[in-house]
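B., you asked whether I could sanity-check this one before it goes into the benchmark set. Here's the sequence:
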Amino acid sequence: MSATNPATESYPSRRKARKHAVEVLYSANARGEAPTTVLRDTADRLGWASHGWFAFAHELVAGVADETEALDELIASSSEHWPIDRMPRTDLAILRVGAWELEHETAPVSVVISEAVHLANELSTDRSGSFINGVLGKIAAQRG
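And here's what the prediction gave me:
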């Protein structure tokens, strides 16, 4: 039996948490429901609460839900020629999670941006990764 290395476990767990947080935020936006309600209902239905990544996903969703207006202002001021209402919902969910993480320093800036770009490449359009990289890079530069 091999021992589990917490250092190698946390990266995939945090990646899963980010992905599920983005999915919940996207779904809540599309349905016009509270993100925490969508998270609770989804977690109950799929048994998410038993997973190690769930606490971080909950932190992300609740944090973004509490600060959506301020995050949207930050995102809008950092994205030239792209008002919030014209952004694809997936990109907006990814940007909100990334911006919240940058504001709360949950991980190194490079990790937050890299993870957001990874999610964009996986979940959104071909151009989304570079767009998200640019917006989050500008937010990081403003706070650094």
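One thing to flag: Confidence is low (pLDDT under 50) at residues 1-9. Otherwise nothing jumped out at me.
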